Automatic annotation (TrEMBL):
<dbReference type="InterPro" id="IPR044978">
    <property type="entry name" value="GRV2/DNAJC13"/>
</dbReference>
<dbReference type="GO" id="GO:0007032">
    <property type="term" value="P:endosome organization"/>
</dbReference>
<dbReference type="GO" id="GO:0010008">
    <property type="term" value="C:endosome membrane"/>
</dbReference>
<dbReference type="GO" id="GO:2000641">
    <property type="term" value="P:regulation of early endosome to late endosome transport"/>
</dbReference>
<dbReference type="GO" id="GO:0006898">
    <property type="term" value="P:receptor-mediated endocytosis"/>
</dbReference>
<protein>
    <submittedName>
        <fullName>Uncharacterized protein</fullName>
    </submittedName>
</protein>
Amino acid sequence: TLIMKDADSTLSTVTSAIVYLLKVRTPLMDLVMQWGYVAQILTLLRRGLDAGLLGFLVQSTLRLIHQIVECTSCVEALIASPEGVLKVMLRLLVPDLSRDAAFIVQGLLSLFQSKKAHGYPILVETSIANSLTTKLLEDVLENPQLAQVIDPAACKVHTVSLLKLLVEDMTYGDQIGEILDGHPAWRKYKHQDHTLFLTADQRVDYFLTSDTPDAPQLLTWSGSVAETTADTRALRLKDGSTTTTTTTTTT
C-alpha cells in the first residue's frame, strides 16, 4: 500500500509539473504532437478505463488531454487518433457521471473550439455518430447526479456552451439543432444567456492545488466517497443582474 501511495504521489507530481510547464511554455505542446505523445496519451486513457483504473492514472492522462486541447496541432492529432477521442472521453461521462464532469466537458469545449484544426468537420460528424448532443443533454444536464459533481454550475455552463457551439456549425448545425429540438429538455437551455463568474478565490485548476495523495480522489464516479466541497459563484442573468449561489456537494 505504501509503495502504491508513493507511486501515485510521484505520478501526480510529475503530471502537475508537465501541465504547469505546458501552461507557461505553450510552444512545447507542438513538440508533444511532433514526438507522437498525443496518441499515446489517449491510448493510455482508454487502457486505464478498460482496466477500471479510475484513480491517478486516468486522472493524469485526463489532465494532459485537458491541457493539450489548447493547441491546434494536438487537436489535429487527437482527431486523427484511431482510438477516437470522443468515444474515449464520453466514457468519463456515460453511463456514470464523473465527479470531474465540469473539468471533462470544459476539455471537450476547448476541443471543439479549435475550428481551424485540420479534420474539424470529421470531429463534428463523429459527434453526431456518437450521439454527443443527446448524451450531453440527457446524461449530463438532466442527470440527477449532476448535483454531486465538483462545480455543477460550471458543468452546466460548459455543457450548454458546447451544445450551442455545435448548433452554430456551418455544415452540421441545422442537423444538430433538429436533434436537440427533439428533446423537450433543450427548451430550458436553448435561450439561456448567462455567463459564469468565479469568485476571486476560486481555484482555476484544482488539480494543481489539491494534487496530494492525502487529498480526496478527484477523478471518481459520483457514487464514490469523497469530501464535501462548497463553492460560491455568481451567475449573470438574462436581464443583466447577477445572483450569487453557494453549492455544497457531498458524495
